[in-house]
Amino acid sequence: MNQSADPHLASGARELYWFQTDLRLEDNPGLQQHKNGELLICLYCLQDNPGWFNTVGMGEQRRRFLLESLASLNDELAALGQVLLVVTGDPRQVIPELVATHKLNRVGTSYAPGHYEAEQRGFLQRNLAAAFTVYPGNTLFREEQLPGGLAGVPGQFTPFRERVQDLPIDVPLPAPKSLPPPPAEVRFVLPETAKSLPDPAFPVRGGSRSGRDRLRNFLYRQRAADTYKETRNALQGQYYASGMSPWLATGCLSVRAIGHALLDYETTVMRNESTRWLFQELLWREFFHWRERIDGVKLFAAGRQSSGRHFCTFDPRAYARWCQGDTDYPLVNALMRELVATGGMSNRGRQIAASCLVNELGLDWRYGAAFFEKHLIDFDLPSNYGNWRYIAGVGCDPRGGRHFNLEKQSLQYDPEGVYTAKWGGFRPPQPVFVTDAADWPIA
Length: 443
Ligand code: FAD
Hints:
Blueprint: E1 14-19, H1 29-32, E2 39-46, H2 60-78, E3 84-88, H3 91-102, E4 106-110, H4 115-127, E5 131-135, H5 157-164, H6 208-221, H7 228-231, H8 245-250, H9 255-268, H10 273-295, H11 316-324, H12 330-342, H13 347-360, H14 365-375, H15 381-392, H16 406-413, H17 418-422
Parallel strand pairs: 1-2, 1-4, 2-3, 4-5
Bound molecules: flavin-adenine dinucleotide (FAD).
């Protein structure tokens, strides 16, 4: 990855910046490299999830949050006389066409995790008739800061945390004060209007501004970081956890900005076990992000537990019941129904629902990961696949997977069944088999 300052930064350059998972102006080092040209196209390519493990497309709420984030980014750009060009299509087609039409000579983007993303970058690197630069992604630390570099990133979290927790975090960059103008004909158009919010009383809206508001409220108005360690395992509520993940996943906020906000809070207001715990969660994200760089496509391999157990099974009925929230496990039903309706689920809920799919239903963990990918408004590839592997015991986990006792979890986290009832988790019992040995329906 070329991270050095670009010698083409002279005016006269006709440029394109391709936004991916960095939908912000503030603390966007890649975009900063494109502020001095003669002309700039700010591009976002809307792409649907390609089919993968029985899911296609993007859930309604994930799409809503994304469209809101794009609209918000366009507002920020408009204040600088710029505009966001949103094109539905594959960047391997869209970008070369724009380069040819507008006679562009420089294209840049920031690292976005994922296998398809890597393929797209590789294609553009090889084929584009313009200089193509990939800038660093949304991580707390720079690659050069990692002890031993990328190759030195351990396979397990604890040694990683011990190595990086005291590293300095770069101060976030301010938004550029000006950008070159776009071509006259470029307009901001979204393919559809965003769907409505699932819960207007608890609006999780896309865009940097709402992310910053949420962070301020969480830290300073609610002082919720002070008690994070005690509240973080709740299944519902507004401030039991930071709620930062949707803005991090879309890049509406940089992780450095959140890290610095937390460190400032610790310096000026309160530093305790809870605030440290929250910082450690950011390191979990950091760990998965660097592991993604190392593991690449292996992240998506079924894997094998240390016991030798191999995940490759698929039972369509069990899978459909899990997705629809219609299993024999009321709490899991409630969690899955919340996920589909809102695009959100607590961390504890994700652990419970994932453990159910892997351990109770015995399915290949990737069906569950793909379903989460479709619906989570905070879908973050390294965190999602990293956590699923961890629960399935095929990733960076020395303990060989996590099997949650669902009855105990229900009693501990939803003793009165309030959450389960709210999401309609109590379902009528269903027969184990609906067909007989010859595959005839059982009446
Ligand atoms: P907080 O508890 O306030 O934590 C602050 C931040 O730390 C989070 O925003 C997140 O960036 C990071 N973080 C916290 N826990 C984890 C973790 N276990 N792994 C990685 N980063 C973490 N997180 C995602 O951001 N995107 C995903 O797609 C995703 N998929 C998951 C799938 C499964 C099966 C599981 C068990 C966890 C997954 N997580 C994912 C991690 C975690 O559940 C969410 O980050 C968290 O619930 C987000 O809520 P929050 O912002 O309030 O987190």
